[in-house]
Specification:
The complex is a heterodimer of chains A (about 250) and B (about 475). In chain A, strand 8 and strand 9 form a beta hairpin. Chain A has about 250 residues and is of the alpha/beta class. Chain A has a single domain, classed as 3-Layer(aba) Sandwich (Rossmann fold), CATH 3.40.50.300. The relative contact order of chain A is 0.16. In chain A, helix 5 packs parallel to helix 6. Helices cover about 30% and strands about 25% of the residues of chain A. Chain B has four domains: about 45 residues, MutS, DNA mismatch repair protein, domain I, CATH 3.40.1170.60; about 140 residues, no CATH class; about 130 residues, Dna Ligase, domain 1 (2-Layer Sandwich); about 100 residues, no CATH class. Chain B starts with a strand and ends with a strand. Chain B has about 475 residues and is α+β, with helices and mostly antiparallel strands. In chain B, the strands form five sheets. In chain B, strands 12-13-14-15-16-17 form a six-stranded antiparallel beta barrel. Chain B has a four-stranded antiparallel beta sheet with strand order 6-9-7-8. A three-stranded mixed beta sheet of chain B has the order 2-1-3. The chains are: A alpha/beta (about 250), B alpha+beta (about 475).
Chain lengths: ~250, ~475
Amino acid sequence: MEHNRNMESVSASILTTPAWRLRPALQRPVPVLAAGQVHEVHGQGDDRAAGLAFALGLGAANRSGTVLMVRSGGRPSLALYGEGLMLLGIDPARLLLVEAGDAATLLRAGLEGARCPGLALVLLESEGPLKGYDLTASRRFVLAAERTQTPVVLLRHAAKAQPSAAHTRWQVASAPSQPLAAPPGAQVRPPGLPALAVEALRWRGGPAGQTWHLQWDEQHGGFRDTTGTSNRSENGQAAPSGAVLPLAALRAG
Amino acid sequence: MPLALVARSGQALRLMAVERDAARHGLAPGMTLADARARCPDLLTLPHDPAADATLLAHLATAMHSLTPSVMPDPPDGLLLDISGCAHLFGSEANMVEKASEITALSTIHALACNPAAARALARHGTPAQRRAEDVAALPVAALDLSEEAASALRRAGLKRLGDLATRPAPALAARFGEGVVLRLRQLTGDVAAPLAPQPMQAPIRAEARFAEPIARTDDVLEVAEDLLRQVAAQMEQRRLGGRRFALTLHRSDGARRRLQVETGQPTRDPLVVVRLLRERIDSLADPIDPGFGFDAITLAVKRAEPLAARQTGLDQAEENQDNLQALIDRLGVRLGQDAVLRLIPANRHMPEQAQVQTPAAKWNGTVSFALTTMPRPLLLFDPPQGIEVIAGVPDGPPLRLRWRGTVHEVVHAEGPERIAPEWWRQRGGHMGTGAERTTRDYYRIEDGHGRRLWVFRRGLYGTQTTPAWYVHGLFS
């Protein structure tokens, strides 16, 4: 009896404990932007493209439907570029852009989008402190997203994290890429595919505090976790087979 | 300046219509353009557009409904109005004519007669004196609108005027010149009816509610609006229409009116969709609705309607999503203005910043998409490009170090150059290559020590008079 009870308690702990905590080396979770949840992506002012690529690549690339992107006005000089979106696997025809003047309009338009069923992703982009975004506002987003099962992502450039009801919060920055093979006669090697350094600042029921090095997978689309492989290749050593794609060959082909 | 419209007929360009000044120079429709130029060297010409004429005529026919309910367009350039029993409403027939020419705002020729065929013949073939006297008998035989052979046969027989024909016995005319002559003649004299086929007047789609006691609360107003929308939806369903523009007018008890207008991207009959738009409109008003002592009456009019067939709902998920999206675009457009809800459209241009445009989503329904490129293109684009200071190899080496916004970036990896030359075909004398070496751009994709990937370019080539300037144009992820 005693023995059986021990067995039960052990199996119960296995069932309740997430798999990644039991065997972290083998089952390392990759960042996901779950549907029907609110996610915050923080970034430095210069890393706007990195945060955007993270949100689009993880939130929209594997879902069909329209991507609603609400941008706060005032910085019209930095426009989304259609051909660049194509390279990330997002057809610009799927994109609906909304220029919101101030923070209140931004949140309101975003909430409208989150309440609309059938969207692939609702993306709100703001810079600096976002007035009016607090626990209540974010909870409203969560309720809307849960009903429509749309992921809602707030891209917050150069902003401090605030308490909110968000499911995850990420810090995203550009990371050194895996350079391609130098063409004949060139002294420097061309930069490689998009690469991101991602840290989970907060992840409800997930590995908060972990960091990843994500790299764009040109063959399958989407970002792939390459943590631990990039450092070695940066030092000029051969990368382990299968971990890093032969980029030069891909580009040439 | 004399003006004429020209079109190609056969091998020659011929005048199709002439303006009054040109007519004074002796030009007339049907003349070849070469002849017209010989008479009047400073003649201005524009291409003749029959489709636009037809649109204008249909528009004028609709406008004429303010004079009489029975209007028939007589293409290409005529309108037949049955004014029986209408003239007294305007005082006299002369007043009515004046009103009609006011509505058209064009120089017009009119004729009044006791039947439509006679009025038409007088207007098209009569002289001013004949038109004034309503003298059908004095019209030339061409007014019968017969074929050219029949008309010349009549003329050869010495029958020049309709009056000459009217005195001859009809059986003899029919035997010699055909039955058509007699029929047309009897239509002109009114012996045989020549009925109009009037363009039916579209009743406006509207509904109205009047109250015994004024109402003041916005919620009440919207509730009434929903009820009115149900009424107009029933009207539109019968006519298989859907509204695109709805105007709600609130009549205040002191006589003031407040008008709210909403537009939808797709024709709709759904009251709830429009009520939601109206609520958005009321919420986003700069000056809120002041009910004063309340509203006496509320009217709702559908200003613009388009065909909308009945549809089975709840079957097709993709279609439903499309409807939801369209409703979202409408709602956002009402709140933020239609210019704030945009879509990215490719433009067929060479320079990266001109290769795409942002178009209001409500106005664009196409499916044109970007082509997948093999060249590196950034995710975000600076417009205009931002100036930087660069140390680079001459003549076309990539940057080695750059200073941007006061920060120095060491370039670790670089790719390039990709040369994008200016669009010489858009510049005056561009094919000569003048100025090309100053505006040609060499693009490089670079990566700095922190992993930031930038798209930078050099404007101009080394070796020209000016030193080339460097710019950051885009950010890669």
